[in-house]
Amino acid sequence: MYAILDIETTGGQFNEEGITEIAIYKFDGHDIVDQFISLVNPEKPIQPFVVKLTGINNAMLRSAPKFYEVAKRIIEITQDCIVVAHNSSFDYRILRTEFNRLGYDFVRPTLCTVELAQKLIPGQPSYSLGKLVRSLGIPVTDRHRASGDALATVKLFKMILSKDVTKEILTTMIKEEIKNGLAPKLLDIVESMPTKTGIYYIHNEKGTLIYIGKSRNIKKRINQHFTGSSGKSKKIQREAFAVTYEETGSELIALLKESEEIKINKPIYNRAQRKSIFQWALYADKNAQGYITLTVQKADGRKKEITSFVSVQEGKNLLFKVTAEYQLCQKLNGLYETQNGCFQHKIKECHGACLGKEAPELYNQRVEEYLANARFENNNMVIVDRGRSVEERSAVLIENGIYKGYCFYDLNYQINTIDILKTILIPMQNNRDTKTIIQGYLRRNKVMKLIKFD
Predict the structure, then answer these.
(1) Contact, 432 vs 259, CB < 8 A?
(2) Buried b / exposed e across 425-449, counting CB within 10 Å, b at 16+?
(3) Fewer CB within 10 Å, N side or C side of the chain?
(4) DSSP 8-state class, residue 270
(5) CA of 206: how far to CAs of 49, 58, 190, in Å?
(6) 385 vs 50: CA distance, rounded Å
(7) H/E segment holding residue 409
């Protein structure tokens, strides 16, 4: 026996929501054998966006029964039943929270029609209740009201039962314990997100930007925000009202746009990223013998850095990469403990600088050639990478070491000079982090094409 239910709530902070309406249909696998539908006085105000969504307002609930007055009926109709709901983790959590306030431990096995539909009706464009039932031709009335949504879930569940001939999935997916679920408004937001690379903007109810981020999979990242348990995640979950996004195709463009827009808009939950996130830097110095050495140190604005890093480990990783390309003499093993950066060419080309066999001037000349490129100061280049579709490419322009902007162009469009590229360029600011973002990206990723020019 199944108790198929839907709950409408006041909205608000996690585990502080109140029930405003509940509908339960007792279903034997073929027919509805009992039902309970009622408004509930939550004894707290309803969030404005919930009023707009459901049509249930505070005035409608003044004379409605309080939860303790309907609790016995809920226990009776769900007794010896599996609780079924669309995103059951949310509805079941709300019920358990209300019963816990009364000192009663409400425990029932559960099934989620979102998860069941994903298994048994794959390939749907969306698994939110409204979009799913419409795509399956299931009639629904009173959308976003408990009775209408619960009845639509009954019809959906009946279809799922007919598809699970062996009953294996249905049996294995029954949960005795429930995880924290997404509120319906957050689930709808996640469902509307693309699985593409780009930048996303989380807004509160007033439309104010509260967080800006980038991801190679926007949908997955938004879901992580909405299911996370950190303090920041919970604040975002409480305040999030809408999410907008912009596909970039190129992760480099997403990183650059994220950096610029955080510094311009200063979202409240990007506070740490308003300042430079690159707190470690690579510096070149000379030892007592006059040879250039490389060290990773805490970033110091008074000193001229070669490049910078988010963490000290990232800096050390670059030094390891350098030694793979320009291996150290065996005598100087232990560079990473002592930070004595003897920078040598491959062993077969070593001229013995660490043994004093090569003059500092000759050794330093080779090091400076490497550092001139690494410093980025005089670089002129176009970074060509993937676009937002297979017919498109992206381009990032750097002139004299300064990031100028980016553009997208169709593969059929001939970009054969820098001047033509500049006509379609989207200008961007060159903030304190752009150089390091580009350097780091080129170190870690293989781009489609890197064009250098004079």
Answers:
(1) no
(2) beebebbebbbbbbbbbeeeeeeee
(3) C
(4) G
(5) 10, 21, 20
(6) 43
(7) strand 402-410
Task: Compute CA 336 distance to the chain's CA centroid, rounded to the nearest angstrom.
Answer: 34
Nearest to 95 by CA among 74, 112, 69, 73: 74
Q: Which residue, 302, 303, 305, 304, is CA-closest to 281?
A: 305
Rounded to 5 degrees, φ, ψ at 134 are -65, -45
Q: Kindly give the interhelix angle for 434-444 and 312-325, rounded to the nearest 10 degrees.
A: 50
Instruction: Please give the model's pTM, rounded to 2 decimal places.
Output: 0.50
> CA-CA-CA-CA torsion for 233, 234, 238, 242, nearest 10 degrees?
20
Polymer length of the chain: 454
Residue 146 CA, chain-centre distance (Å), reads 31
Per residue of the chain (454 residues), give pLDDT as tens.
899 999 999 887 767 789 999 999 999 888 899 999 999 999 889 888 888 888 899 899 999 999 999 999 999 999 989 999 998 888 998 998 899 889 888 888 888 999 899 888 898 888 888 889 888 888 888 878 999 999 999 999 999 988 887 776 666 777 665 445 567 778 888 888 999 999 999 998 888 899 999 999 999 999 899 988 888 898 999 899 999 999 999 999 999 999 888 988 889 998 766 555 567 777 777 777 777 777 777 777 677 776 766 677 766 666 655 443 333 343 333 333 333 444 443 333 556 666 667 777 877 777 676 666 555 555 788 999 999 998 899 999 988 878 899 999 988 777 778 888 888 898 887 777 788 788 778 877 888 888 888 7
Please state, in angstroms and as integers, the Cα–Cα distance from residue 226 to each residue in 24, 110, 125, 160, 357, following that order.
27, 22, 20, 27, 61
Distance CA 244, CA 97 (A): 32
Across-strand partners of 9?
19
Contacts of 182 (CB under 8 A, 6+ apart): 87, 89, 90, 190, 226, 227
Q: Which two tokens stand for residue 212?
A: 């800006």
- In whole angstroms, what is the distance from residue 152 CA to residue 154 CA? 5
- Supply the DSSP string of 279-348, one letter for each residue: -EEEEEEE-TTS-EEEEEEE--TTS--SEEESSHHHHHHHHHHHHHHSPPPGGG--HHHH--------GG
Q: What does residue 164 show for φ and ψ, rounded to 5 degrees? A: -90, 75
**Rg for the chain, CA atoms, rounded:** 30
Quote the DSSP letter at residue 175.
B
